[in-house]
Amino acid sequence: TDSYVYAGDGKLSMFITTPVVGAADTTRFLYNDGNATATSIGGETTLYDYYTDKTYLDGDFFKLSQMINTGALALVNRNLLKSITSPEGAISNFTYQYDNVGRITRLVISGMTTANYTYTYDCK
CA–CA separation, 100 vs 56, rounded Å? Predict the structure, then answer.
């Protein structure tokens, strides 16, 4: 079972996963200026950095991964994700390319993880 706990400001503060057997895992979220800047689970902290000059849009890594994994947005940031630093210090970097109307058309992940995502839009 997955449970989402929100703070009074509407931001996700905890994500709790409870398995059928065993103890629950609780992920705690820390924020700065509208962005989740750190998550902590079991004493290990993951850090997040953002492009403060770029607004959170369709195509952002967090938005993409949430829609693929759960079909809904539990975590909404103010800006686009720039990098993730794992508890071990490994870094994944995120770069974005845009079309002429400002939509993200490509996400490139490099570093600890590598991947390329290309987006197309069909507006009717």
Answer: 17
Q: What would the pLDDT profile of 9-50 be if each residue is shown by its tens digit?
A: 999 999 999 999 989 999 999 999 999 999 999 999 999 999
Place of tokens 């693929």: 68
**Three-state SS sequence of 56-121:** CCCCCHHHHHHHHHCCCCCCCCCEEEEEEECCCCCEEEEEEEECCCCCEEEEEEEECCCEEEECCC
pTM of the model: 0.90
- The encoded tokens of residue 27 equal 């992920």
Strand partners, 15: 4, 27
Distance CA 114, CA 38 (A): 21
Asked if residue 119 lies in contact with residue 106, where contact means CB atoms within 8 angstroms, the answer is yes
